[in-house]
Each structure stands twice: as C-alpha cells, then as structure tokens.
Amino acid sequence: MTKTRFVVSDLHLGAGDYLDDFDQDEAFASFLATAARRRGTELIINGDWIDFVAVNLEKVSHRPFSRMGCTERESLAKLERVMEAHAPFFDALRRFMEKGHRVVVVPGNHDVDLFWPLVRDRLLEVLGNPDSEHFHFEASGVYRFGSVHVEHGNQYYADSVFEHFTNPFLRDPRTGELRLERSWGNCFLEYFSNGMMSERNPFINNVRPIPNMVFMGIQDESWWFKLAYGYKLLRFMSRVGFPPFRESRELLRRKREGRLDSWGYSHKRFMDLLSGRGKVELQGVDDAEVLSAEFPTEEENEEPARSQEGLLLDSLATREDALSVAARDLLLSDQGIDVVVFGHDHRYYSNELQPVLGGKKGKYYVNTGTWIPMLFLTRTRRQLRWRDLRDESLYQQLLTYAVVRRGLGGYAASLRRIDHGRPTTEVTGKDHGEAK
C-alpha cells in the first residue's frame, strides 16, 4: 500500500497567554486519530510548529536590536511553557507514533530553537522517545522524497531569512556563549509586538502585512499611540534598518541580486505608508466555503481527479509572490521535482485542478496556509481603520493541510481542510487567503 503523507504548517503553538493564537488542540487530535487509521501514515509538520518567538520569559539575556537571540536554556524554558499549555497536542503526537506512524519536522523561522540539542532531547522525551523510524527532524530545512519538495519557505524573504539556517547559532563576543541567530522579522516581533501593544491589541499577530498594520495604527490611533509607537518604530528602523540585518554581507548580496523578496519592507513602501499614500484595505475571503469534501480513504483512487479544462491552463505561471516564483523555479528545474509544498506566508493555495506548468503536466504546488485566525490587508474590498481590526468576524481560520500520494502517474498533491474537527477534502483550483 502506498504511503500517504499529510502536511501541515504554521500551527504557531504558544504558551497559552495573550500571544498564543493556537486553540485547535482537540481538532488536531481528531485529525491525527483519523489519519492514524490508515497504514503507514506520515505527518510532516512544515515549519512554525512551535512559536518560540511569541513566548515571553520573565527575563532574557539578549539585546533588543541584536541578531543574537536566546541561549539554549532560554529556548528550553520556552518549550516547557508551550508543552504545558498544549499537553493534549503533544499527547496526540505521541499516540500517533506509538501506533507505528511517522512524524517529520521541518524547521521554520519561528521554531529554529529546535536546532538546540537540549530542546530537541526534551521534546523527544515528552513524545515518548521515538526512534528515527518514527520521528525525524529535517536539519537541512528541505524534506525530499521521490519527486516531492517540502520546505517552509522563510528563506525566500528578506525579513525571515537566516544566514545560517541549518546551523542557526552565533558566538556572543562578550561572553563566548552560543546564541540563537535571529531573523530580522523575529527581532522586530519580539521588540514591537510581544509587549504592551499585543496585550492592548491581541489581533496584531494575526494581521498581515505587518507594515500596513503598524502604519494603520499610527495613522488612526490616538496621539499617545502615534507618539509611543511611532517613536518605537523609528527607533527600531534607525538601529536595525530595512531587512535583512545589515551585519550579514551574504544576505545583503542576495537581496541586491533579487534573490530575496523585500517589497513589503522597501524604502518606497515605508514612505508611502508613512505619508498615508499606501492604502490598507480588507481582502475578500468569501470563497472559503468551496473547501469541502470527505477525508480520503485507502480504497479511493490514489491520484486526484484532474480537470481536463484545467490542463489547458497555466495558472501558476501568472503568480508573482515569492513562494509561487520559487515553486515555479523548482518545478521547472532539472531536479525532477513534480510536487512543491510550502507554508510560511499563511496564504493557502493549490493548483491541483490545473497541475500544468510550462507545458508540463503533473506539476503541483500547494501552500498549506495556517491554523490560526488571519486577516490580510492587501488589495481589498473596502477601507478599514484600526478599530475595525477588533472585529473577529473579519478573520479567517481554516485548518488546512496537504495530502501527498503516489499514483500511477507519479506523485500528486491536494489541499484539504478540517471541518468541525473532522478532516474533509477540498476541491479547488485557485488560491485562497491571498489578495485577489
């Protein structure tokens, strides 16, 4: 029987406080219980599983504007808080592996702390000390099997790229101890979002793009807000600059060569938003209901149905976001890749009904989105103000995941969702969660 692989990403488990947006422990346990009924199931957690960035400690030793972040002990303390807050989640993972199934963890920009040996050892202890056949940490950052490429996707963006992603440690010149490398975005979130601003406005970690949201607040809120957070933002930019960190010559070179997406944090974008010329609006989410069908059975056709009309189209070729461009490059390369699965930007997408690229059929790209509520502020249907962001009805929370299987024609992928705690399939040929 062909192994079925399920892929999730961007769960963002936190410490159970106001910064923790994951509230789906029960749904996740139900999902795993259903998936475990199949033989030889593999679960791939494709980055940002544990949101170490959103876990505050009473005292930290790193400086606010530095590339150098937590020590190993500090990351371990964060893990303990997350495991305490989400015990049912970790219990479900342990039971899944005890039934003979396999878990693969691919790191993302919010959980690079998993590279610390003590952190990983403690995690494995809680998961029942599974052997390498049942648990695998993909330290390369890219999980490949057959013609399938699974990667979180943060390395394509200037604000979330790491210079040493597969070994994210820096030596503190003052103390000589190892510290975790931080991306520009992680530094920004810890400085700007993880304090009083999040307590007063708990939605801020659920709104993207972040620059749009910040400038919306500066333009719309009280003079106290403008002064306090305008000053804080300008202080950060004056000390750190635009992404990536200016200390990294390699990353700056890649940015100059156009190999890192930095539009959201460009100087022009910054000035447009500061002057009020950059518009902030709500993106439509009305098409979310098309994500509906049944959980796949072992008896059903291993290869998803394909629209003959869709085979005449080339929809992926028209998408210009950084991850779609990266997926195109991988699918059209000479590496023999037929399926690309990304996460990271929280915008779910699948071309499964039109799996054609550059005249080649059977070329799949799926983005698994996120399990936390999200609101995107790009190219939208109506103007919003800061106070509108408190309206929970504006936020979309879809528990999406990918299914990757091998059929007679090779590997294929589809995007699915969980509905009321039960996994269901999705039949769609377009993107969701992204601006139209």
List the helices and strands and how they pair.
Elements: E1 5-8, H1 25-35, E2 42-46, H2 72-85, H3 87-98, E3 102-106, H4 117-126, E4 135-137, E5 142-145, E6 148-151, E7 169-171, E8 178-180, H5 184-193, H6 196-200, E9 207-208, H7 210-220, H8 223-240, H9 249-256, H10 267-275, H11 322-331, E10 339-342, E11 349-350, E12 356-357, E13 360-361, E14 364-367, E15 375-376, E16 399-407, E17 410-419, E18 422-425
Helix pairs in contact: 1-3, 2-4, 5-8, 7-8
Written overview of the protein:
The relative contact order is 0.15. This protein has a 7-stranded mixed sheet. Strands 5-6-10-14-11 form a 5-stranded mixed sheet, with helices on one face. A two-stranded antiparallel sheet has the order 7-8. The longest helix is centred in the middle third of the chain and has 18 residues. β3, α4 and β4 form a beta-alpha-beta unit. Helices cover 27% and strands 17% of the residues. The C terminus is likely disordered. The chain has 11 helices and 18 strands. With 436 residues, it is an alpha/beta fold. It has one domain: 4-Layer Sandwich (Purple Acid Phosphatase, chain A, domain 2), CATH 3.60.21. The two termini are 40 Å apart. α2 runs parallel beside α4 and α7 runs antiparallel to α8.
